[in-house]
Design brief:
Blueprint: E1 3-14, E2 17-29, E3 34-38, H1 45-53, E4 60-65, E5 68-69, E6 80-83, H2 95-100, H3 110-123, H4 139-151, E7 157-161, H5 169-186, E8 189-194, H6 197-203, E9 206-211, E10 214-219, H7 221-226, H8 231-236, E11 241-251, E12 254-259, E13 263-268, E14 279-284, E15 289-292, E16 302-312, E17 317-322, E18 330-332, H9 339-348, E19 351-356, E20 362-365
Parallel strand pairs: 3-8, 3-9, 6-7, 7-8
Antiparallel strand pairs: 1-2, 1-4, 4-5, 9-10, 11-12, 11-14, 12-13, 14-20, 15-19, 16-17, 16-19, 17-18
Bound molecules: adenosine-5'-diphosphate and magnesium ion.
């Protein structure tokens, strides 16, 4: 295992008592992996990186890199490096000196040093910028310099704390692609922290979803989206509509549910996870729902309601459909309707129908 965090607990004393920034936290990262750690602000992401980097020690637990324990090693003795959100480079130094900064104590000849710096300038697509003052660079360029400065030390694990957080949307999207391809080139293990779930899905081999100092789920991006293990993950990653349901039978991994709004439905489920009579949540993603302005022929898996609102998102629209008796409107992202038609329906307060395929349902245990 490249990186292994074993039962790490870190608490801070606060006026209202000890605060568990990390609570029995464990995580494994394999060689060359790009793992994202995603979670809301304050859930402990930075604390985790600071523990791995050695800026902080855990109150309990251990940390290993390639099998060697590093829990209490000082930061400069660890094979790690960290990149921060706020481009922590020296503004008055030129780009080359910034990138070479960590190598100043190594006995390299000037030529060797500059060859090395040139290689990293090329890697971050800033060849020829070595003599520029760092303060003359744009935000995105500074962040690339910070990245090169960390990578030139050839860490076994690179820790990135919301490194794209200060960039505007377009630049951020470009940097996401660049960073991912750069990671593949250098083959270094990346632990990438973000609060942006979309960013975590688009960049990583694996995603660890955190909440209140704990990991909720670690999966590949598609598994996380298609098979969230609990309500919090399902809500945090993308949008989902939940309906209450009760398990009525289980046969050969097919579960039947009874739901007030969906009627009787069947879907695949694991045999030994649910019991008959158990109350569960049945979830469905907005893009798995179809909106119809005329009542479709089928009589099962159909819900009727009224469109309350539209949010236009460019390549698709989200329709919020109010279902009689449900407190939260259902979010539908359907492309088979015409917006003008729907606008008219909203004005006339007319009915619409929502259909879905039962294979698209996500069943989740309640209070898990
Ligand atoms: P994140 O990076 O996910 O936003 P942090 O790891 O920075 O979260 O913080 C986790 C929790 O620990 C937060 O509630 C934060 O307020 C608290 N915390 C972080 N650092 C300290 C500190 N030095 N002293 C007291 N509380 C802290
Ligand atoms: Mg943070």
């Amino acid at each position: 295992m490249k990186l292994h965090v074993n039962n790490a607990t870190k608490f801070y004393e606060t006026k209202s008592g000890p605060l568990h920034a990390l609570d029995n936290f464990s995580m494994d990262v394999t060689e060359g992996q790009f793992i994202s750690v995603v979670g809301p602000s304050g859930c402990g992401k930075t604390t985790l990186l600071r523990l791995i980097a050695g800026f902080e020690n855990p109150d309990q637990g251990k940390i290993f890199i390639e099998g060697d324990e590093i829990t209490y090693l000082p930061p400069n003795k660890r094979p790690t490096n960290m990149v921060f959100q706020n481009y922590a480079i020296f503004p008055h130094m030129d780009v080359a000196s910034n990138i070479g900064y960590g190598l100043r104590k190594e006995k390299l000849s000037k030529k060797e040093l500059y060859q090395k710096i040139d290689r990293y300038l090329e890697l971050i697509k800033l060849s020829g910028y070595g003599n520029r003052k760092a303060e003359q660079l744009s935000g995105g360029q500074r962040q690339r310099v910070a990245l090169a400065r960390a990578l030139i030390m050839q860490p076994k694990v690179l820790l990135l704390d919301e490194p794209l957080g200060a960039l505007d949307k377009q630049l951020r999207a470009n940097m996401q692609i660049e960073l991912r391809s750069l990671q593949k080139d250098v083959g270094i293990t990346f632990v990438f922290v973000t609060h942006d779930q979309e960013e975590s899905l688009s960049m990583s081999d694996r995603v660890a979803v955190m909440s209140r100092g704990k990991i909720l789920q670690v999966s590949s991006p598609d598994e996380l989206y298609e098979k969230p293990e609990n309500e919090e993950v399902a809500n945090f990653i993308g949008t989902i509509n939940f309906f209450d349901a009760t398990v009525s039978s289980i046969n050969n991994e097919i579960c039947s549910f009874k739901s007030k709004y969906l009627g009787m439905i069947q879907t695949n489920c694991k045999n030994n996870v649910y019991s008959i009579g158990e109350e569960v949540l049945v979830g469905i993603r907005p893009e798995k729902l179809n909106l119809h302005v005329n009542k479709p022929e089928q009589d099962s898996w159909i819900i009727e309601g009224i469109v309350e609102n539209i949010s236009y998102l460019g390549e698709r629209s989200h329709y919020y459909v109010k279902i009689d008796g449900l407190s939260k409107s259902v979010s539908v992202s359907s492309q088979n309707v015409n917006r003008a038609q729907i606008n008219q329906l909203i004005n006339d307060n007319k009915k619409v129908w929502v259909t879905f395929d039962s294979d698209s349902l996500i069943v989740i245990k309640k209070n898990s």
